Amino acid sequence: MKASWRCTSGETYAATLEQLRPDAQITIVAPADDDARVLAPAEIGDFDAVFVTGSPLHVYDDSPEVQRQLAFMRAVFASGTPSFGSCAGLQLAVAAAGGTVRKMPRTMEAGIARRITRTQAGRDHPLLAGRTDSWDAPAIHGDEVERLPDDATLLASNAVTAIQAAEIRHDGGIFWGVQYHPELAPREIAIALRRQAGSLIEAGLAEREADVEQRAAQLDALHDEPDRRSLLWLLGVGDDFAQEAGRRLELTNFLTHLVERGD
Predict the structure, then answer these.
(1) Are 136 and 178 in contact (CB under 8 A)?
(2) Do 153 and 166 touch, CB atoms closer than 8 A?
């Protein structure tokens, strides 16, 4: 499978995972589709891990597509297969386990999630192994987790979104998830910003499309030159955001601790 700057969320995840684990055999499913085959927990149990990607759907909408997504996530929990999700993937797992998701009441979080900070529970959690006490990460979302389910642990937060990372243990399964996007490169975030320029202006994050383009161009440049100090200064980020290994740390930790070691 080839990486592309205009690939689906599933293809983006697959390309990232193939780079992290070249021998991995990856199957992409789209459970929201009306013609998607329903996978039973026993079938999902044949996989070593499940990765739940971002999605344009809103988990709080009572639509057939969302209901199919929730049914799939409940089957993932019931299968006992370890799972990981980012952005809408976290939101889906939360809703499937009994928590709630909402439209962000004030604004969006777009481009860079700033100063994500561990909770006390997150300080020793293997999902965040190798993270400093505070870090930045790629992000773009207008929905957020409102309330975690009872069987969840909050691992990280920031000033914009209270629930940035969490563990959920539900119905025999374990899920690690983040509200940000460890699978995305700066150029992919730049594409997302350009695509959602109107929403960013409406949310008050930009005055005009030229502002969005300026930030997107900086992210494009950082993608090509991650060591360029002037870009790090302009964007206000460090190596945890600029370097591929830093951005992908949670994915690496999940593969190492839950999939390969079975911690």
Answers:
(1) no
(2) yes
The contacts of residue 198 (CB under 8 Å, 6+ apart) are none
Active site residues: 87, 181, 183
For the chain, 263 residues long, give each residue's pLDDT as a single digit of tens. Answer: 223 344 578 888 899 999 999 999 999 999 999 998 899 999 999 999 999 998 989 999 999 999 999 999 999 999 999 999 999 999 999 999 999 999 999 889 999 999 999 999 999 999 999 999 999 999 999 999 999 999 999 999 999 999 999 999 999 999 999 999 999 999 999 999 999 999 999 999 999 999 999 999 999 999 999 999 999 999 999 999 999 999 999 999 999 999 988 76
- The pair of three-digit structure tokens given for residue 205, joined into one six-digit string: 């994050």
Show the domains of the chain with their CATH numbers. 9-184+244-260 (3.40.50.880), 186-235 (no CATH)
